[in-house]
Amino acid sequence: MDEYIGLSPQAPQGFGNFLRRAIFGQKPFKEVFYIDPSAADPQAEADRYEKVLLEHPMDICILGVGENGHVAFNDPPVADFADKRLVKTVALDEICRNQQVNDGCFTQLDEVPRTAMTVTIPGLMRAKALFCIVPAKTKAHAISELVKGEVSERCPASVLRRQPAAKLYLDADSASML
User: Cβ distance 74 to 118 under 8 Å?
Assistant: First the structure.
C-alpha cells in the first residue's frame, strides 16, 4: 500500500521488506509486486505501480489506521477521497513521521523519510475486501473520529464507513474512546 521514498532496498523499515519477512518469504506465492523505495524517479515508480494495480486489482487489503487517522500514507494534508490517481508521491506530515519513531521503526525523527509513495484512498477502496486492524491506545482518538466523526479527509480512515466491504477490528485500547 505504501513505501518510503529514498530508503535503501535492504532497509528494515521498508514496508516491502517487512512484508517479505513476515508473509511473502514464508510461503511460495505466484507473484508479488513491491513498490521500489530506491527508484531514481519516484513519479515513474508511482506510475508503474498504478499500472500493476490496474492489471492486478486488489482482492484483499489489510490496513491499519495511523495516529492522525491516515490509511496507507494518506495523511490528512494529502488525503483526497476523489483522487484521480491510484498511486502517488506524498509529503509525510509530522504526526505520521513521529509515529514511526514512537513505533520503534526509526530511532529519531530526522531518520524518517519526508516523502513516500502511497496507494490513494480511491485505490484502496477498489479492493474487494478491506480488513482494518487497529491495536494500541495511541490510536484511540483516530478510531473515535473514524467511528463517530464526520466522514472527511481530516480523518482519512473515516472513508471506510462508506465501504461496505470494510471490516474494522479493534482491541480494548484502540476502542477506549468509543
Answer: yes
Residue 16 C-beta-side C-alpha neighbours within 13 Å? 19
Can you give the pTM of this predicted structure?
0.95
| 53 closest CA partner among 79, 99, 86 | 86
Structure-block grid coordinates of residue 159: 472513508
The per-residue pLDDT for range 5-21, each reduced to its tens digit, is 998 889 999 999 999 99
pLDDT in tens, 90-138: 999 999 999 999 999 999 999 999 999 999 999 999 999 999 999 999 9
Question: How many Cα atoms occupy the beta-carbon half-sphere of 152 within 13 Å?
Answer: 6
